[in-house]
Task: inverse folding
């Protein structure tokens, strides 16, 4: 008959608290990371949608000045009710495409430094504070 081994720890009370203390910080960090990336991706998606919509609105313009005015009007209207994107931090550039003369480019740049994501994780783990999206569209009539 073999001698019975004694348990090193005769009681297992408190094991759940120790496991929680080890796992909780990792879980909370991952949760804040998902929230931060979700907010940033939502802002980036909104900027892309605004750039695409501005390009579609610009097709009606006859010259680059009119296209730029149409793009600015579209962006101001599209972002007027948005709570995440501040329209004052959006820059719009409408120019002819250097590669294909019958196309033009609409570039929308958003300064995302006021998004709340920077308070959740800091700037080292997230993409840049400037969100830049570009859309190329045919000038029409061709």
Result:
């Amino acid at each position: 008959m073999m001698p019975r081994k004694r348990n090193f720890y005769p009681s297992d009370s408190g094991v759940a608290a120790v496991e929680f203390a080890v796992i909780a910080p990792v879980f909370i960090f991952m949760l804040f990371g998902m929230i931060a990336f979700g907010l940033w991706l939502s802002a980036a998606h909104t900027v892309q949608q605004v750039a695409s919509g501005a390009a579609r609105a610009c097709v009606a313009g006859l010259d680059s000045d009119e296209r730029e005015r149409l793009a600015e009007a579209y962006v101001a209207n599209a972002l007027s009710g948005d709570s995440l994107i501040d329209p004052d931090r959006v820059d719009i550039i409408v120019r002819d495409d250097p590669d294909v003369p019958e196309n033009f480019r609409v570039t929308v740049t958003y300064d995302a430094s006021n998004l709340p994501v920077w308070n959740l994780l800091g700037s080292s783990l997230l993409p840049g504070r400037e969100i830049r999206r570009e859309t190329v569209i045919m000038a029409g009539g061709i």
The first helix runs from residue 15 to 58.
